[in-house]
Predict the structure.
Amino acid sequence: MSGQGSAHGSDVRLAVRVTSTAVHVAGLAPNGATIATSALTLRHHRPAPDQVETSPEEVWQGTLSAVAEVGAALPEGWAVVEVAVGGDPHTLLVWDRETLGAPRPAITAGDRRTTGLCEQLRAEGAAAHVELLADQPLDHRVAGPRLRWLAEHEPHTWALVEDGRYAVGGVESYLVARMTRGLEHVTDAAHARPTLLLGAEGWSEELCALFGVPLDALPELVEATSPAHAPTPRTDARPDLRPDLRVGAWGRTDPRTFAGLAVPVSALAPA
């Protein structure tokens, strides 16, 4: 698998989509036809009643394995020129911005640990205000309530979120961080909307205050259709990013960590 085009082959776009149960990777031809696919099931752990978690490292290693399988199945001369990433918007992760390691498991879609918190917010009359600001109903499955739960129940982890050492985000944001070797911490409105932290004009200070979430811990909102990031300011941190290299809306993969590929990253619709 190569990140450079071939005169005798064709360009391939990798579509990486992570649901609450599996990693799915597809190699797509320029006309949208599927050339090769791979899927790896994710294991779930139940540390307590109503809690469902999975290993962030398993998500990452599963992605690398699925990408390798698709790459091995590509016809000779075909080359990967872009990767697009999408994920289940109900999966929440925390990771170290420097090491990219995760201090705790990912909280997945089936987790119900914040049901009581949401009932409390409804009893306090906050549900209608949340729905007004977020244009989404109060939901125990999403990031806002789950981050407040983490702040209340895992203070040591949360202290490093507040200090800026740990980042938070959906599985799409986590994968892009891993693919770019920590250079990018991004998402888009489609993935951010279900979090109950997004307002009409971006991350809402009022909603973040309600759930106790520092704005700086959240991903940068970058739409897939926005102009590509200019690589020039990043050359000090990434010597491989020359001005002639195209960078996608969500950055560019680092070949040292992502299957030897240095290709633009863009967004898929949420899983």
In short: Residues 226-245 have pLDDT under 50 and may be disordered. The CA atoms of residues 34 and 53 lie 31 Å apart.
